[in-house]
Task: structure prediction
Amino acid sequence: MAVITYREAIRQAISEEMERDPKVFIMGEEVGIWGGTYAITKGLMDQFGDKRVRDTPISEAAIVGGATGAALAGLRPIAELMTINFGLVAMDAIVNEAPKYHYMFGGQMTVPLTIRAVGGGGRQLAATHSQTLDVIFAYFPGLKVVLPATPYDAKGLLKAAIRDDNPVLYIEHSLLYPHKGEVPDEDYLVPLGKANVMRQGSDVTIVSYSRMAQISLEAAEALSQEGIEAEIVDLRSLRPLDMETVLDSFRKTFRCVIVEEGWKSYGVGAEISTRIYEEAFDYIDAPIKRVAGAEVPMPYARNLEQLAIPSKDDVIQAVHEVLGIA
Amino acid sequence: MATQTIPLNQNAEVNSDKLVEMFRQMLLIRRFEEASEEAYAHGQIGGFLHLYIGQEAVAVGAISVLQPQDHIITAYRDHGHAIARGLDTNALMAELFGKSTGVSHGKGGSMHLADVSKHFWGGHAIVGGHLPTAVGLALAVQYQHQDAVVLAFFGDGATNIGLFHESLNLAAVWHLPIIFLCENNLYGMGTAVSRASAAERMVDKACGYHIPAQQMDGMDVVAVRQTMDEVVSTVRSGSGPHFVEALTYRYRGHSMGDAQRYRTSHEVKEWEERDPINVFQHILIDQGILNDKQVGQIIREVNHEIEVAVKFAEESPEPDPEALYQHIYVED
Amino acid sequence: MSTKLTMPKLGFDMTEGSVQKWLKAEGDSVQKGEPIAEIETDKATVEFEAPNSGVLQKIILPEGKTVPVGDVIAILGEVGEAPAAKQENGQQPAKTIQAPATEQSIPRPQAVEKPPAKEEAEEGELTPLRRGPDKSPSRPAAKAPTRTEAPAGGTDGGAQDRVKASPLARAIARELNIDLTAVPGNGPGGRVEKKDVELYAEKMKSQAATAAAAPAQTTPVMAPARQPAPAPAAEGQLQEFSKMRQAISRRMTESKQTVPHIYITSEVDMTDAVALRRQINETMAEDSRISVNDFVIKAVARALESFPNLNASYQEGKLRMNAQINIGVAVSLDNGLITTVLHQANTKSLGQISREVKQLVKRARENKFRPDDLQGATFTISNLGMYDVEEFVAIINPPEAGILAVGSAHPKPVVVDGQVVVRERMRITISADHRVSDGAEAARFLQEVKKQLQNPMVLVVG
Result:
């Protein structure tokens, strides 16, 4: 077991998969000579050459659409979007082309495509560059959407995504890049569509994913000092969604807080809580609580931005509320 | 517009069998479209139905020069391209009827005909949405050093969307083996090219990306074949992308139920006088390649094939309800 | 036509029982298969279902009173039939009782003054009458009897809906038959939550126990001179035995006093079984994993095929050779012990045994038995392996001929081929009824069980 950063875990996954399979290549803005805007692909061009580490023009639709075509013809491309916000100009390619082909053409076509993008706020990039858009993409059947919260998952999920025969959107969080964790030395995969119980607890279930899973973990450690043991379910994948793990935990704790960085309206919390109502109504011992980002375009000013993003204290407060502690 | 035809004897590579086959394909497309128009009126076909009548020479002439390893991708007016590529008319008609025996098992319909085994990567319904995909197919060819080209069909309307420009630029930057074939039928739905596009010549749009471009007479199958033969050879030899504009015309509305307020019946009549099938038939008879009797025989064969296709479509089963949840994902 | 409902026999050795709770009141209409009472036997509380649809005309056996099996406990009449006799308790307004239950089970006040609906149907006035309840402005009044019909313990429906309670609290209250209106809510805004219901249930239990113990406590007060009262701490509190405790006490005493037990112990090498189990469980979800006990059940059931005497019952000087091999599995509960029955265990796969035992144990812990769960065992296994027990001897559960007591499997140094090696060992002790079997046979039986467990693959494949 080596201790590496989330950033390094992603880089290793790309590098190892490219070494393993010559059909794997990466294309995107600044992935080559620059080494990636977030330094994820640093050194890969030297290692694999410009045929397999391809700088592109600023053409997100053509990046994702082009990778889709290459995937149709049997390659296993990784299309990098500099940030998920730029995915909005490639919406047709991400949600209306790649995820539809297998179904719409009666199973003839497969699209083994991985789209990588970074999301989330917290770096003072203001309204257009700080969004958490996960649920928009998770809305579409045919696309898989995964979001690692730890270096272990970052590597295992990305390798699994690259080897998956379906289009997978893999969303990183920029504030997690320096986060360190243990990663096995040998090859391993983290299955797509399987949630992870990050921490065991009996008093309340906190459902979260990506950076908010780490924030929830910090909150859980603080709550533990008060004698409250929170169980944390890291969804890891928004589609397919692993409700079994969530429900198993909920049927143990009877109380739930859902923590997401995105906006509350129509969000992950709305989905998860509704499914709990549908599947485990008789196990509900308190109203389910959602912690989510403030419903505003992200402001630039540091203090305002911090107010807009859920914090450890927000999670602690929500847990207190579902436990009836004023 | 120039209406010159190329004397057949200038094109030594075209043997008479190939010409007869092209003629048969054009008739087959025409008859397929007429039969589907009828079935639509009977309520046997749902959704949109975009007929290719009038444009047959483009698909048949262009695809006639391709090799099996080459790739084809097109937009939603895709019946003609599918037939020209040799997709089974039974399975094509069954797809229009929404039957399980359709090329896409009844999941795609008229706009989504495909047969991967023939490298026919589909009709695509989002205007311009398939152009980046086409570029990607060409990237895969280049990446794997394959001896293949990609032929991407699209209409004049698609040249006004951003996807078109991103695709042309990326293909040119990466020097990809792709031919962008724009079928300019003068209308993007009901909006005339002159009202929608600042550049009325589609070829002009390729210039900005340093992509070689030329126009051809899309009503003349021989001209199309000759132009495409040269273009495909050039691209196959590693020239990078190429752009071709076929000047053509659709006789029917954009889709079914189009009142066609945007054009006069006189205009349609003028184009019908240059009907690509009639023109080609006269050439073949003049050149002594076919006689009237042989033409009659081909027409009967084509009519029979389409009758069989309609019957096959009618009698085929609907998709099993279980198919609803099949093929959302590739299962392990 | 009315039907006499009698105290059912809910176990092959059940001789008497009591109605712990009537779930229906006199005059209630009941559907075939609908639970109408909870019958308490000495083992468990089992729901008693209506044998056919009709109206519960009369309750003969009051709650809590014990009668022999076969005694009439209630009368079930047909829909529209008048009650057999005037009711005794007078809890319900006569009007409600007399009102014929319509198909919708909503008696309307008007119906009392009119001939029964059945006759009206024959007169062809069906439509206007049936429409009545829907259109009648007196609809709220028509609902009133429905409310009084609701049994006190019911947690669903009108009155309960006005209690602020979490869905979980409601579910638990329904399970424990607790009236939520009586439970103080300590959640936000006075909401009743799980802990409130559990606290209330606990309190009710201890109150019942205190009430039962009260007369005993008064004794020393009434006769202070006769005997010095022991110090309260030493004396403790005298409690009534629960039904289950009474049964255990009676049957175990009977067994130890009348059945001559013979005990034989053997040590089994479980190394391979433990390894195989681990291997199997690696591929299984947590809740479907196979236990060591599942292996033991399978091995014992298989072995019994060759030892019919140990699968027999001593019965009045004769031996009943049982046709099936039904393994009793002793389950410890908070308030005692119950033996649930895995029928025809020898015919079941290891996976099937594992699944069914899990369900049996779950039902036992939730006190939700099916009649089959408790009767028909021909041989019992008691496993205390989870308590780090080296070995123990168990008391036979009459009329069975034997019981196997299973200790913990744990690593031990043993000599194999002249070498000291560490192996997983487990001790098993059979108690056999010496009237039907003897030491040698019981020993051979143990050998057979041991052989099976030491070649665990045959248990998986077979």
Summary: Residues 3-141 of chain C form a domain with the OB fold (Dihydrolipoamide Acetyltransferase, E2P) fold (CATH 2.40.50.100).
